[in-house]
Amino acid sequence: MIDVVVLFFLLGVFARLVKSDLRLPEALYETLSIYLLLAIGLKGGIELSKQPMLALLPQMLACMALGFAIPLVLTPVLRLLGLSRVDAAAMAAHYGSVSVVTFAVASAYLAAQGVSAEPHAALWVAIMEAPGIVAGILLARLGARNAEGQAQQVNWGELAHDVFFGKSVLLLAGGLVIGAVMGEAGTAPIAPVFMAPFKGVLALFLLELGLVAGGRLGELRRYGLRIVVFALVTPPVLALGGALTGLALGLSTGGMAILATLAASASYIAAPTAMRMAVPEANAALSITAALGITFPFNIVLGVPLYLQMARWLNPGV
Amino acid sequence: MDKHARTLLVIIAEAALEKRLVADSQRLGAQGYTVHDVRGGSRLSVREALWEADRSIEMKVIASPEVADAIARHVMGSYAPHYGLTLYFADVDVIRPEKF
Fold this sequence. Notes:
The structure holds 2 protein chains of 2 kinds. Chain A is mainly alpha-helical.
């Protein structure tokens, strides 16, 4: 039932809880994340080379719309939970954007279960990074303008640069393009590095993320039960939205489960960085604790199997 | 050896500010800078540099007292309300004054 890589995550959390001195060097963390982003992009790109881009346009637009819509729905909910407008919008932006590692875990889980999904799903990940962040910033900024009666400036040029040329999107999109241009045969020489060891690298990276997420658990007390409940209830609800979008697009059951996972996942790399630049007055620790401390572990341990069930239930014929 | 008095300004900040701090200090007259990745904390929180959003930097600028003051004033005014920041000054002697 549980995928082996998830156990590495739990080991990392455990190491943190028992105050182990385990610490992965920062350079290794950086290397692993670069590897994962490139490998995921390449894999998706190779599949892209086999299909006409135009046919994928509806999927691409739907992914963009889904990412943008999530903060619009979540911000009012978070306001009702008592968060300030900027905190609500910033937190919602984290959920609107996506977690690449959650996607990787979902793909690994589907493969282990023998469920096939659209092989170019990495394209959805690359597309869904940015729209939620943009929506969250707009919500935070529009609100600030009304409250203080003065326009607060967002340097959109700098922000766009940081989001689109930041590590995540650059490497994912770069891998997609390289994979699409070179195809299966062209990438064969580098496959021994980028394809075969993928899951082992993912396991190592999850060990590191377990250390990071375990470190956030102590913060839960500071923010109270409402944030815990929000971070646990929101992913399945968003997953349902993602799965239904997948159904409307005519995706396979596996594809629906992937899109559900993407909708349910919360960004903890691109979104926090963008929020620090564009909405610095938002409480960064609050969003990260919810996204990385609760939602991420929930998604990879319980969420992904649940979303596959959800997709099977919505799409019983396939 | 000839020594020339200058001011060392040290800024410890979230890594997210690095680009802005470099641009600001150069605009305000600093000729150079040095940045280290650092980790640390306080009684309230710890920044361990385990992943992107948890990174901190220490930036050093050696400049004339006026330039160092101008940079510090700008940094405090622009970023102190919403970012973790520590600033301090020290008197240092340099050998090649034209560099600073």
